[in-house]
Amino acid sequence: MSVRVERDKETGVAVVTLDRPERHNAVTLEMARELGAAWRAFRYEDEVRAIVVTGAGGRAFCTGIDREDAGRVPQPSSPYTIDDPLLAIGPKANDLWKPVIAAVEGMACGGAFYLLGEAEFLIAGENATFFDPHTTYGMVSAFETVHMAQRMPHGEVARMALMGGAERVSARRAYETGLVSEVTAPGGALGAAREAAAVIASYPTEAVQGTVRALWSTKEASRAQALAHAPHLVTLGNLPAERQEELFTRRGGGHRLR
């Protein structure tokens, strides 16, 4: 299995780890199913009162869907719908309202935002970078930008999405714009997230979950409406798969960090 779940009965904290460091924790179709199953299982585990999600290896939190798996997902012909295996990898998509904290080290890009967008808050090591390469490869960033627009100012989301792979947002800049709530020394994000989760888990769970639900209700309607537009924007705007692959092969290049 490429998704590890560890539970600490003493603190009430569980840690969900994406465990494919050799592939920068890119999500396979099997991992997507494992993540959904993990979030749904937590709904019935009263001893788990707060959760941390992170990536193994330190080089990346997650780099989105594994490109080899992405090509194996058949798509409907209608431009108004899409089969996206990442849609249900987050806790809120699986009706989990226990608090989730993301601990980010290294790269977090593209499809990683499905997970980050459904966490309560993010803690990042100084080496963390955030970017969205979709436009670079002829792909529409729709679901990703909707998720990030809930957490960052419009201009910052627009710049990150439109600059594509040419620019990466540093952990410090992510903190300045509100995407990240705490920056630690490199390698310190998981420890800091565990500590915060343990504090939250020590409080009455009914009050904590009610607060999580209240926070999400403030933006649920606009978020759902925006996500409803995403499927046809993607199907209408994406280049054919073979052209995307050409661009992916051709455009390695450097990037700017800010």
Automatic annotation (TrEMBL):
Coiled coil: none annotated. It comes from the Bacteria. Belongs to the enoyl-CoA hydratase/isomerase family. This is Enoyl-CoA hydratase/isomerase family protein. InterPro entries: ClpP/crotonase-like_dom_sf (IPR029045), Enoyl-CoA_hydra/iso (IPR001753). CDD domains: crotonase-like. Pfam families: ECH_1. SUPFAM superfamilies: ClpP/crotonase. It comes from Streptomyces tanashiensis.
